[in-house]
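DM between two lab members

TW: hey, do you still have the Polymerase/histidinol phosphatase N-terminal domain-containing protein entry open?
JB: yeah, one sec
JB: this one, 395 aa:
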Amino acid sequence: MNVIRGTWSLDDRLERILREVPFEVPAGAEAVTVRLRYDRSAGVLDLGCGDPEGFRGWSGGARDAYTITADWATPGYLPGPVREGTWQVWLRLHRVPPQGLDYTLEIVTASAPPPRPATEEPPAGERPPRRDIPDLDGLRWYAGDFHAHTLHSDGSLTVSELAALARGRGLDFLAVTDHNTVSHHPELTEIDRGITLLPGQEVTTDRGHANVFGDVGWVDFRQPADSWVRHAARAGGLVSINHPLGADCAWLQPVTERPRIAEVWHSGWWDRRWGAPLAWADAWHDDLVAIGASDFHRPGSDGLPGSPTTWVLAADPGLVFDAVSAGRTAISAGPGEPLLLRLGDELLALDADGLVLVRPGGARQVIRGDRVLVPAGPGRHRLETYENEVMALCA
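TW: and the structure you got?
JB:
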């Protein structure tokens, strides 16, 4: 066992927040295990790993240990060859008190891999009946969520458990967006839960979070935000600004080309009479595409998948990203909540009796009935209560 001890200071954090602690892996090693010990009541250290060829995983503050072998790895980390040479423990100095933070790393290399931890398949949930929503020119409105986490970062559920939960909520698709890793991506196509699972990565930093959608490979969160945007564009992916007004993870990153997509409606929008998210959206981009996100981590601590629900007009759930790029989105508070959809030159207000339709210019109209068609103009429309609580958004 290789034991490394040290102390991080607040000056260290301010100088460079991400640190690499090197260690050697000998020829013939079949497994690497790293354990991090520190006083969690005093600070927070995020944990990751790099090998001689680059990224091997990230778990942030969710874990204090990981194992990497050729055939399996701790969620958040990539299985594969255990290469001889200099590896690195990545430590992000997330919170360091003025008095400093002592830490210990215990690193073990083994000539035989430990057994893979056992897992159990969750029961399949029943999907509720679909809502009666008309198709448009061969396209269908699909219900989904663009932000959720699993055991591969700081969530509590496996990918399969998350998929079963989302399907039981009535969702057609779910983007799985673990923090700073893509180790969950291979599982998305292996699991058949009656829901389309879409690949994503939540690029997570002290100055804001962004989702990169698509099978585009790992995006290096250590680089400036402009590089994330370029990476996604080169690989055919999309970038969304996450919870831009989200307390200590609000968007503060400088970025030259502002992404057109943003989580305008996040589960953290507790009081939807507060108009700041809508004002931010108007200021951010003239042609912004609004999406919603539960940011689900675990039952009881966040909105459930689909809270809010993003509706996307697409030919197939697997083509959701193309539809988002085209701006065909709407958002409701949940899968069965009041809904406002654009159907060509009309808007369909569904289960919205007594709500107020607010047009882009500010004109207002009371909706009378549970299934009402009204003329549509250009721009973002919304449904509100008489107290100005936002109930639905439509591009």
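TW: got it. The two ends are 57 Å apart (CA to CA). The chain has a mean pLDDT of 96.
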